[in-house]
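Researcher: I'm preparing a figure for a lab meeting and need a structural model of a single chain. I don't have an experimental structure, so a prediction will have to do for now. The sequence is pasted below. Please return the structure as tokens so I can convert it later.
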Amino acid sequence: MNKTISLKIKRGLTIEKEKKILQFKGLLISNSYTDIIHIADKNEDCYLNFFTILPEKRKEILDFITRMLKDNNLTEEVIIV
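Model: Understood. Here is the structure written out token by token.
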């Protein structure tokens, strides 16, 4: 089973959206879903953030991510790949 979750994050966001994304990533770590989030350039329009997970928590983590993105109006800025 896949042990990695990847998120495509748009570049050039407002400061408010950037803060929400940082808070969201902080929650991923503080909820013990991951220890570190890796960041890579995907292209000039977006970054790729990825992190390893315990496979048995995959559904729980994806549900959390989906809920957080929706609650913070980040569904267009952050895409699960």
